[in-house]
Amino acid sequence: MPERDLPTRLDESLPDVDWDRLAPDARRWTFSAPSGPLAALESGTPSAERAVLVPGVTGSKEDFRFVMPQLVAAGYFVQSFDLAGQYESWPAGPENLRPPGVEYDYDLFVGDLIAFLEAGSTPSHLLGYSFAGVVAQLVAAQRPDLVSSLTLLSTPPVSGRAYRSIKRIGWLDRFVDARGSALLMKLGIVWNVQRVPPGRLRFVRERFTLTRAEAHRQVMGLLSRTPDVTGALAAQPFPKLVAVGMHDLWPLGLHRRFAQKLGATIAVYRTGHSPCETAPHQLSRDLLELYATAPAERR
């Protein structure tokens, strides 16, 4: 079997782990963002080339448990953090902004991510997972000087009402508000619709005990007005990757058109919405290939 198939073989034999247990050499810390304290993880040598991996709504930094060691082993310094209001970043919110804000909006998340990037070496390799991919696009469009490469992992491939385009149940979007969408999403996760292993299920259920309901609900509202910055991003010289499972929420054809508009390469895995959890070795391989194509002046 060709060596390139090794990541696939490793992903097919992933163990069920304690997702709250740190990967080797990972360190917990807290970043003081404009919206408040963000729970963060980092691994590797701080002087090395930097990669920042941002999880989505209802997600957390632990979602990259299998990816971080692969990137560190290749010589990168890797950081991740929980979005404001999510899991261990639950204290962070609009009330901490100066002046205080009213809700979790795009400006809040963009401001936090820009501050996080500026606090370390830049430009950095940036990955946004699902909703965080929308935020990462906005940051990369506004501050391209901060970005070495951009990876959009399972990111909504359409603008406007993003959930209207998802498979099978997208038609329900016209009948369900942000509160209803958040409830449906939570029930799907808690009831284990995706049939994740016991260790993973236990972790995601515990995670919901900290995530602020209003943060979840308001982000679902943001996804009903997803911005389109593909034109601005296509004009940027840094390399771009759209990484997605063939069984993602959105049809693969939409992801392919999205990648084409961005001028991005696309990687497709035999998995669903969470390749960082279910295909981490394949994803890491593709990230390393992407990072190697970044212009020298952006590394």
Automatic annotation (TrEMBL):
One Gene Ontology term of the molecular function aspect: hydrolase activity
Q: In the UniProt record, does the keyword rRNA-binding occur?
A: no
Q: Give the Gene3D superfamilies listed for this entry.
A: alpha/beta hydrolase
**InterPro entries of this UniProt entry?**
AB_hydrolase_1, AB_hydrolase_fold, AB_hydrolase_sf
Cellular component per GO, a single term: membrane
**Limits of the AB hydrolase-1 domain:** 52-283
Keyword Hydrolase carried by entry: yes
Q: Name the domain of life this protein comes from.
A: Bacteria
Q: Which UniProt keywords apply?
A: Hydrolase
PANTHER family hit by this protein: HYDROLASE, PUTATIVE (AFU_ORTHOLOGUE AFUA_2G14860)-RELATED, MONOACYLGLYCEROL LIPASE
Q: What is this protein called?
A: Alpha/beta hydrolase
